[in-house]
Design goal:
With about 210 residues, the protein is an alpha/beta fold. It has a single domain, classed as Rossmann fold (3-Layer(aba) Sandwich), CATH 3.40.50.300. The chain has 8 helices and 9 strands. Strands 2-7-1-8-9 form a 5-stranded parallel sheet, sandwiched between helices. The N and C termini lie far apart (about 40 Å). Bound molecules: guanosine-5'-monophosphate. Guanosine-5'-monophosphate binds next to strand 5, strand 6 and helix 5.
């Protein structure tokens, strides 16, 4: 068992090094994942405002069937669609990945990838671990995978409560326990204990790949 784990670890390390060092591998997707409430969206928003990075990055606006939260903007945070509309897009093969997360549907359209490619930008995906797995299957070679985790589950619960997610808080915490098991599959793992520090760490990773792509 220990031997298998060691093999998996060294394979992951090999892939990460190869992405970092092999100039032929062009990275055009940055997948940021981890339990909901961990702060992915806040980290991404800060990175998208960074003067050094903002012109080089594009946020992948997902489609979702969940209701809009206060302050969210259609087409900026999400495209809010009905379940019928979402399933029509699935049937037409318009998503590179889609998943049911906490009872709602979420998906990343191929259109987002096309738009980023057209403008020569890196596309940042804020998706759950199931979605990250699907992107790895389809575009693993041109993506890097960053896992954001909470310092502990109590902290995560507090953050979800602060955000006003009290309705599905238990679902989200239970899901978080399962989601944390995916950490080992990611190229990088960052603890969001201190927001500024986490932002800096993600920024450094992204910068490295922007320089590698040159
Ligand atoms: P929220 O409802 O809190 O905005 O998002 C819930 C979860 O869905 C988060 O973990 C978020 O990363 C994930 N999510 C958002 N968009 C997508 C998507 O397009 N695909 C997948 N698989 N997950 C997504």
């Amino acid at each position: 068992m220990a031997e298998i784990k060691e093999k998996i670890r060294s394979k992951k390390e090999e892939e990460k090094n190869s992405k970092e060092n092999n100039n032929k591998k062009i990275i055009n997707l940055i997948v940021i994942s981890g339990p909901s409430g961990v702060g992915k969206t806040t980290i991404i928003k800060k990175i998208l405002q960074d003067p050094e990075l903002k012109d080089k990055l594009m946020f992948s606006v997902s489609h979702t069937t969940r209701k809009k939260r206060e302050g969210e903007v259609e087409g900026q945070d999400y495209f809010f669609v009905s379940e019928e509309e979402f399933m029509r897009m699935v049937e037409r093969g318009e998503f590179i990945e889609w998943a049911k997360v906490h009872g709602h549907l979420y998906g990343t359209s191929y259109e987002n990838i096309k738009l980023a490619q057209k403008s020569g930008k890196l596309l940042i995906l804020d998706i759950d671990v199931q979605g990250a797995e699907k992107v790895r299957e389809k575009k693993g070679d041109s993506a890097i995978f960053i896992f954001i985790k909470p310092p502990n589950l109590d902290e995560l619960k507090k953050r979800l409560e602060l955000r006003g997610d009290t309705k599905d808080i238990e679902t989200r915490i239970n899901n978080a326990k399962k989601e944390l098991e995916f950490e080992k599959k990611f190229d990088y793992s960052i603890v969001n204990e201190n927001l500024e520090k986490a932002v800096l760490q993600v920024k450094e990773i992204i910068k490295k790949f922007i320089n590698n792509n040159k």
